[in-house]
Amino acid sequence: MIISATTVRKILRRAGLGPAGQRPGLSWRAFLRGQAASLLAVDFFTVETISLQRLYVLFFIELDSRRVHLVGCTANPTGVWVTQQARQFAWTLQQQPSPFRFLIRDRDSKFTRDFDAVFASEGIEIIKTPVRAPKANAIAERFVRTVRAECLDWLLIMNRRHLDRVLRVFADHHNTHRPHRSLNLSPPEPSEQTVRAVHPSTAPIERRVRLGGLIHEYNLAA
User: Fold this and answer.
1) How far from chain centre, in Å, is Cα 38?
2) Rounded CA gap, 219 and 139, in Å?
3) How many Cα atoms are found within 13 Å in the side-chain-facing hemisphere of 168?
4) 28-190 topology per CATH
5) Which of 7-11, 128-132, 143-147, 192-196 has the lowest mean pLDDT?
6) Of 48, 58, 50, 68, nearest in space to 178 by CA
Protein backbone atom coordinates (compact mmCIF):
# COMPACT_ATOMS: atom_id res chain seq x y z
CA MET A 1 0.00 0.00 0.00
CA ILE A 2 1.30 3.44 -0.94
CA ILE A 3 0.69 6.29 1.52
CA SER A 4 0.58 9.80 0.11
CA ALA A 5 2.54 12.72 1.53
CA THR A 6 -0.72 14.36 2.62
CA THR A 7 -1.67 11.35 4.71
CA VAL A 8 1.72 11.27 6.39
CA ARG A 9 1.44 14.98 7.16
CA LYS A 10 -1.98 14.50 8.78
CA ILE A 11 -0.74 11.60 10.91
CA LEU A 12 2.24 13.60 12.13
CA ARG A 13 0.03 16.60 12.88
CA ARG A 14 -2.34 14.50 14.97
CA ALA A 15 0.62 13.12 16.89
CA GLY A 16 1.88 16.63 17.56
CA LEU A 17 5.00 16.14 15.47
CA GLY A 18 6.22 18.98 13.31
CA PRO A 19 8.19 18.81 10.07
CA ALA A 20 11.80 17.69 10.23
CA GLY A 21 14.34 20.43 10.56
CA GLN A 22 17.13 21.13 8.14
CA ARG A 23 19.77 18.48 7.85
CA PRO A 24 23.01 19.40 9.59
CA GLY A 25 26.10 19.71 7.47
CA LEU A 26 28.21 22.12 5.47
CA SER A 27 26.44 23.83 2.58
CA TRP A 28 28.02 23.92 -0.88
CA ARG A 29 28.52 27.69 -0.68
CA ALA A 30 30.17 27.45 2.72
CA PHE A 31 32.42 24.66 1.47
CA LEU A 32 33.56 26.74 -1.51
CA ARG A 33 34.29 29.76 0.65
CA GLY A 34 36.12 27.78 3.29
CA GLN A 35 38.23 25.73 0.88
CA ALA A 36 38.67 28.22 -1.98
CA ALA A 37 42.46 28.37 -1.65
CA SER A 38 42.71 24.61 -2.15
CA LEU A 39 40.11 24.28 -4.92
CA LEU A 40 40.50 23.87 -8.67
CA ALA A 41 37.74 23.58 -11.24
CA VAL A 42 37.83 22.17 -14.76
CA ASP A 43 35.43 22.51 -17.66
CA PHE A 44 35.02 22.65 -21.44
CA PHE A 45 33.53 25.23 -23.75
CA THR A 46 33.03 25.10 -27.51
CA VAL A 47 33.90 27.51 -30.31
CA GLU A 48 32.65 27.43 -33.91
CA THR A 49 35.10 28.35 -36.68
CA ILE A 50 34.13 30.13 -39.91
CA SER A 51 34.10 26.72 -41.64
CA LEU A 52 31.57 25.52 -39.01
CA GLN A 53 34.06 23.24 -37.33
CA ARG A 54 33.40 22.84 -33.63
CA LEU A 55 36.44 23.09 -31.37
CA TYR A 56 36.53 22.12 -27.71
CA VAL A 57 38.60 24.10 -25.21
CA LEU A 58 39.73 22.53 -21.93
CA PHE A 59 40.68 24.83 -19.07
CA PHE A 60 41.29 24.84 -15.32
CA ILE A 61 40.64 27.73 -12.96
CA GLU A 62 41.81 28.38 -9.40
CA LEU A 63 38.77 29.34 -7.33
CA ASP A 64 40.59 31.58 -4.86
CA SER A 65 42.79 33.62 -7.22
CA ARG A 66 40.62 33.22 -10.39
CA ARG A 67 43.79 32.35 -12.30
CA VAL A 68 42.96 30.51 -15.53
CA HIS A 69 45.01 27.73 -17.13
CA LEU A 70 44.22 26.95 -20.77
CA VAL A 71 45.52 23.45 -21.40
CA GLY A 72 44.42 22.72 -24.95
CA CYS A 73 41.84 22.84 -27.72
CA THR A 74 40.86 20.11 -30.17
CA ALA A 75 38.12 19.04 -32.55
CA ASN A 76 38.09 15.53 -31.09
CA PRO A 77 38.17 15.61 -27.27
CA THR A 78 38.55 11.91 -26.53
CA GLY A 79 39.13 10.58 -23.05
CA VAL A 80 42.72 9.78 -23.97
CA TRP A 81 43.37 13.35 -25.12
CA VAL A 82 41.78 14.85 -22.01
CA THR A 83 43.83 12.57 -19.74
CA GLN A 84 47.06 13.56 -21.49
CA GLN A 85 46.27 17.25 -21.05
CA ALA A 86 45.57 16.54 -17.39
CA ARG A 87 48.98 14.90 -16.97
CA GLN A 88 50.76 17.87 -18.47
CA PHE A 89 48.81 20.28 -16.26
CA ALA A 90 49.40 18.18 -13.15
CA TRP A 91 53.17 18.51 -13.66
CA THR A 92 52.86 22.29 -13.34
CA LEU A 93 51.06 21.94 -9.99
CA GLN A 94 54.30 20.86 -8.36
CA GLN A 95 55.52 24.45 -8.80
CA GLN A 96 52.61 25.87 -6.80
CA PRO A 97 53.55 27.28 -3.36
CA SER A 98 50.55 25.58 -1.72
CA PRO A 99 49.00 22.28 -2.83
CA PHE A 100 45.45 21.93 -4.08
CA ARG A 101 43.19 19.41 -2.36
CA PHE A 102 40.04 19.31 -4.49
CA LEU A 103 39.09 19.43 -8.17
CA ILE A 104 35.51 20.22 -9.18
CA ARG A 105 34.30 18.71 -12.45
CA ASP A 106 31.00 17.77 -14.04
CA ARG A 107 29.95 14.27 -15.10
CA ASP A 108 31.00 14.57 -18.74
CA SER A 109 32.06 11.18 -20.11
CA LYS A 110 35.27 12.76 -21.40
CA PHE A 111 36.48 12.86 -17.79
CA THR A 112 37.43 9.21 -17.44
CA ARG A 113 38.78 7.14 -14.55
CA ASP A 114 42.28 7.72 -15.90
CA PHE A 115 41.67 11.46 -15.69
CA ASP A 116 40.66 11.14 -12.03
CA ALA A 117 43.66 8.92 -11.35
CA VAL A 118 46.05 11.61 -12.58
CA PHE A 119 44.90 13.99 -9.85
CA ALA A 120 44.51 11.28 -7.23
CA SER A 121 48.22 10.60 -7.64
CA GLU A 122 48.81 14.27 -6.75
CA GLY A 123 46.69 13.98 -3.61
CA ILE A 124 43.75 15.87 -5.16
CA GLU A 125 40.23 14.62 -4.49
CA ILE A 126 37.70 14.73 -7.34
CA ILE A 127 34.35 16.34 -6.54
CA LYS A 128 31.62 15.70 -9.11
CA THR A 129 28.85 18.23 -9.52
CA PRO A 130 25.21 17.09 -9.57
CA VAL A 131 23.66 16.23 -12.93
CA ARG A 132 22.64 19.30 -14.95
CA ALA A 133 23.73 21.72 -12.24
CA PRO A 134 26.06 24.29 -13.85
CA LYS A 135 25.73 26.58 -10.82
CA ALA A 136 27.72 24.02 -8.84
CA ASN A 137 30.71 25.00 -10.99
CA ALA A 138 29.74 28.65 -11.23
CA ILE A 139 33.22 30.20 -11.27
CA ALA A 140 34.29 28.12 -14.27
CA GLU A 141 30.99 28.91 -15.99
CA ARG A 142 31.52 32.62 -15.30
CA PHE A 143 34.89 32.53 -17.02
CA VAL A 144 33.26 30.97 -20.09
CA ARG A 145 30.77 33.84 -20.19
CA THR A 146 33.60 36.37 -19.81
CA VAL A 147 35.77 34.96 -22.59
CA ARG A 148 32.78 34.86 -24.94
CA ALA A 149 31.45 38.34 -24.14
CA GLU A 150 34.83 40.09 -24.13
CA CYS A 151 36.67 38.16 -26.83
CA LEU A 152 35.20 35.31 -28.87
CA ASP A 153 31.86 36.97 -29.72
CA TRP A 154 33.82 39.74 -31.49
CA LEU A 155 36.11 37.57 -33.60
CA LEU A 156 35.86 35.16 -36.51
CA ILE A 157 37.97 32.13 -35.66
CA MET A 158 39.75 30.60 -38.64
CA ASN A 159 40.99 27.29 -37.25
CA ARG A 160 42.37 25.56 -34.17
CA ARG A 161 45.74 27.31 -34.40
CA HIS A 162 44.06 30.72 -34.60
CA LEU A 163 41.82 29.91 -31.64
CA ASP A 164 44.78 28.75 -29.57
CA ARG A 165 46.64 32.01 -30.20
CA VAL A 166 43.61 34.17 -29.41
CA LEU A 167 42.89 32.33 -26.17
CA ARG A 168 46.51 32.50 -25.03
CA VAL A 169 46.45 36.27 -25.42
CA PHE A 170 43.13 36.60 -23.61
CA ALA A 171 44.21 34.28 -20.78
CA ASP A 172 47.34 36.38 -20.28
CA HIS A 173 45.19 39.53 -20.17
CA HIS A 174 42.74 37.85 -17.79
CA ASN A 175 45.48 36.71 -15.40
CA THR A 176 47.79 39.72 -15.39
CA HIS A 177 45.71 42.80 -16.20
CA ARG A 178 41.92 42.40 -16.12
CA PRO A 179 40.41 43.62 -12.79
CA HIS A 180 38.16 41.22 -10.88
CA ARG A 181 35.51 42.41 -8.44
CA SER A 182 36.04 39.35 -6.24
CA LEU A 183 39.72 40.36 -5.93
CA ASN A 184 39.05 44.01 -5.05
CA LEU A 185 39.56 45.04 -8.70
CA SER A 186 42.97 43.39 -8.95
CA PRO A 187 44.04 40.78 -11.50
CA PRO A 188 44.98 37.25 -10.37
CA GLU A 189 48.68 37.83 -11.11
CA PRO A 190 49.28 41.59 -11.13
CA SER A 191 52.50 42.70 -12.76
CA GLU A 192 54.69 45.37 -11.15
CA GLN A 193 53.44 48.00 -13.60
CA THR A 194 49.83 47.07 -12.92
CA VAL A 195 50.33 47.45 -9.17
CA ARG A 196 51.97 50.85 -9.64
CA ALA A 197 49.24 52.03 -12.00
CA VAL A 198 46.51 51.85 -9.33
CA HIS A 199 48.18 54.64 -7.34
CA PRO A 200 48.00 58.32 -8.38
CA SER A 201 51.06 59.31 -10.35
CA THR A 202 52.25 61.97 -12.74
CA ALA A 203 54.14 59.43 -14.83
CA PRO A 204 52.91 59.07 -18.41
CA ILE A 205 50.50 56.28 -19.23
CA GLU A 206 51.15 53.89 -22.09
CA ARG A 207 48.51 51.87 -23.89
CA ARG A 208 49.04 48.35 -25.17
CA VAL A 209 46.74 47.16 -27.94
CA ARG A 210 46.09 43.43 -28.18
CA LEU A 211 44.09 41.24 -30.57
CA GLY A 212 43.88 43.99 -33.16
CA GLY A 213 42.43 46.58 -30.78
CA LEU A 214 39.86 44.33 -29.10
CA ILE A 215 41.76 44.61 -25.80
CA HIS A 216 43.48 47.74 -24.46
CA GLU A 217 45.81 47.58 -21.49
CA TYR A 218 47.07 50.71 -19.69
CA ASN A 219 50.26 50.83 -17.67
CA LEU A 220 52.66 53.42 -16.32
CA ALA A 221 55.44 54.08 -18.82
CA ALA A 222 58.79 52.64 -17.76
Assistant:
1) 14
2) 28
3) 9
4) Nucleotidyltransferase; domain 5 (3.30.420)
5) 192-196
6) 68
